[in-house]
Write a structure and sequence with these properties.
By secondary structure, this protein is mainly α. It contains 8 helices and no strands. The two termini are about 25 Å apart.
Length: about 220
């Protein structure tokens, strides 16, 4: 059976992990970390749990993106593609999350060392995915942030409706198809993540590692920049 493409797996994983973290770890966004500014404000205003993970998410995300970029540049200087090595590091991080979930889950979002470790490890894994996608899979739509992708889809649909140039319409249709698939895959990941949290809050943390393992064998053809 042919695996989905690497960008497709990453998009599903992005939606799944962000939803899983949000529902299981007191509203922590593991991939869309800027949302943590909003949830941190709400946490402080209402006295909710999870303030430390939200406070540390952005610096952790930045640190991992920075460090992983240095590693990628070093690998490129040695004439090696950084895609698979970075996917392996991401897999190891998600395996660590799965082990912590099996040992200490289910999580209730309270501020403990374990929930903080789980949250920041997920943030680190998604930081690697974001940096890798931005730098090395730039021909594919982003796998975590859907705002810009959705905006482009609406712009292209308007162009298809109003533009009279066949070549422009053809290009817009191609973008809508590619980006629409990404948004749908991300949304599917969100839905599955929500179901996993409801019906199997411990085992749900194992699926990201399985997806990460599958991504090692997925094709990145047409996505590499």
């Amino acid at each position: 059976m042919k695996l989905p493409s690497l960008p497709t797996i990453l998009s599903f994983n992005g939606g799944y992990v962000d939803t899983l973290g949000f529902l299981s770890l007191s509203g922590l966004f593991t991939a869309h970390v800027t949302g943590n500014f909003v949830t941190l404000g709400a946490t402080l205003a209402h006295g909710l749990d999870g303030a430390w993970s939200k406070l540390l998410a952005l610096p952790m995300f930045c640190l991992v993106v920075f460090a992983s970029r240095l590693v990628c540049l070093k690998l490129q200087s040695l004439d090696h593609s950084p895609i698979r090595p970075m996917l392996v590091v991401k897999l190891l991080l998600l395996l660590a999350v799965a082990v912590m979930a099996l040992a200490y889950g289910p999580f209730h979002g309270d501020d403990t060392r374990i929930t903080l470790a789980v949250g920041l490890t997920l943030v680190s894994a998604m930081a690697i995915q974001n940096g890798l996608h931005k730098a090395h899979l730039a021909k594919a739509p982003p796998s975590t942030l859907m705002t810009g992708t959705t905006t482009q889809i609406m712009l292209d649909l308007a162009d298809i409706l109003a533009n009279s140039k066949p070549e422009d319409i053809s290009a817009a249709k191609a973008r809508v198809k590619k980006m629409g698939t990404t948004v749908a895959t991300f949304a599917l990941g969100c839905g599955v993540g929500a179901l996993g949290t409801i019906y199997s809050p411990v085992i749900a943390f194992s699926l990201p590692a399985i997806l990460a393992a599958a991504s090692l064998f997925a094709s990145s053809a047409g996505a590499e920049s």
